[in-house]
Write a structure and sequence with these properties.
By secondary structure, the protein is of the alpha/beta class. Helices cover about 45% and strands about 15% of the residues. The protein has a domain of about 140 residues: 3-Layer(aba) Sandwich (Rossmann fold). The strands form three sheets. Strands 4-3-5-6 form a four-stranded parallel sheet, with helices on both faces. Helix 9 runs parallel beside helix 10. The protein starts with a strand and ends in a 7-residue tail after the last helix.
Length: about 350
């Protein structure tokens, strides 16, 4: 967008970019490659975040840098390699987030014209939040709507993304005004898209699954006891989805995945729940993961790998994974509608 002199400014006043609003979509992040050093850099940044692992640095960092990061990058790299987008040489999360951003930008252009700039960033890895926020500020965005793509709020996801955006402002002399999008787990349009995805998946199956397991990323139980609303918002997401589906309460079950470390996490654990179901004779299930706005390592590798294998090893016969909402049009309509609501007073459609 061409730069202009401010109104009533003298002829020698420097040209400034035209004022506009930035909409910055944010997701968790991704390594740049599956080999050891890219994986190590990514895991080091991720697991050094105090929002993710809140142990004292003097205790945690020697364990992380000396033991975990000597071993885990090899295992994680192999897991990522099974789902890697080799054509674009990037993780599926990167591909999907870029596609989401393109569709979101189309909607923003149709609604607001050139008054908005839409981009995306990752909390860990690249493109990083500070770089993209600075790019928006330099492009004339004096107001930024920051949109963490997490339906349910949690300190290790939404809060750490917001933290990083605030850190970006701390390094700017001329700070844009900032708004952050709150959790949207009970937004009607999001729930409608989620409901439609489940119904459409079931319509394609030869037999109706006996159970729908709704698997969320887990957190340590002490986060819940300390007041983090994530667990409660997950439970409410399940209830609202079941109500929209019109199913009996027993057909839908909530569980949590991706446990890390020795302490007690919220449960039940998805990998254990599906095995128990199979042992009880529930041999046909579907799994959906509404905590993720885009398919990633936790869904494409963990659910369809480790969790599916646990179900089948225990006697399960039919395991169906229902993809995340990704760049479905109803999902993108929902996300844009949420953003438009949060932009009230700044912009009008």
């Amino acid at each position: 967008m061409p730069a202009n002199r401010p109104d009533h400014a003298p002829a020698d006043h420097p040209r400034l970019p035209r004022r506009r609003v930035g909409i910055l979509l944010a997701n968790l992040g991704t390594p740049e490659a599956t080999s050891y050093w890219p994986m190590r850099r990514y895991l080091s940044e991720f697991l050094s975040d105090k929002r993710v692992i809140d142990y004292p640095a003097w205790k945690w960092q020697p364990i992380l840098q000396g033991i975990i990061l000597s071993i885990r990058p090899f295992k994680s790299g192999k897991n990522y390699a099974t789902i890697w987008n080799n054509e674009k040489n990037e993780s599926p999360l990167m591909t999907i987030t870029r596609d989401q951003t393109a569709k979101f930008a189309q909607r923003a252009q149709a609604a607001y014209g050139d008054e908005v700039m839409v981009d995306f960033a990752m909390r860990y890895g690249k493109p990083n939040i500070k770089t993209v926020a600075r790019k928006m500020q330099e492009a004339g965005c004096d107001r930024i709507l920051f949109f963490p793509l997490y339906p349910q709020y949690a300190a290790p996801t939404t809060a750490t993304a917001n933290d990083q955006m605030f850190r970006a402002l701390m390094e700017m002399n001329w700070q844009p005004a900032l708004r952050t999008v709150p959790a949207y787990f009970e937004d009607a349009t999001y729930l409608d898209a989620l409901t439609a995805s489940v119904k459409q998946a079931y319509e394609k199956l030869p037999n109706r699954p006996k159970k729908l397991v709704i698997s969320y990323h887990g957190v340590p139980e002490r986060y819940l006891l300390a007041g983090d609303p994530y667990h409660c918002q997950c439970q409410k997401t399940t209830r609202l989805l079941a109500e929209r589906l019109g199913w009996e309460a027993g057909e839908v079950m909530t569980s949590f995945q991706s446990k890390f470390g020795p302490e007690k996490w919220v449960g039940p654990a998805t990998v254990e729940l599906v095995a128990d179901l199979a042992k009880q004779g529930v041999d046909d299930i579907a799994v959906v993961s509404p905590a993720f706005a885009a398919d990633c390592i936790e869904t494409l590798e963990e659910i369809q790998g480790e969790i599916a294998e646990a179900f089948e090893a225990a006697g399960g016969k039919s395991f169906t994974y229902i993809p995340c909402l990704n760049d479905r049009d109803d999902h993108m309509d929902a996300l844009f509608g949420i953003a438009a609501r949060e932009l009230a007073g700044w912009l009008q459609c």
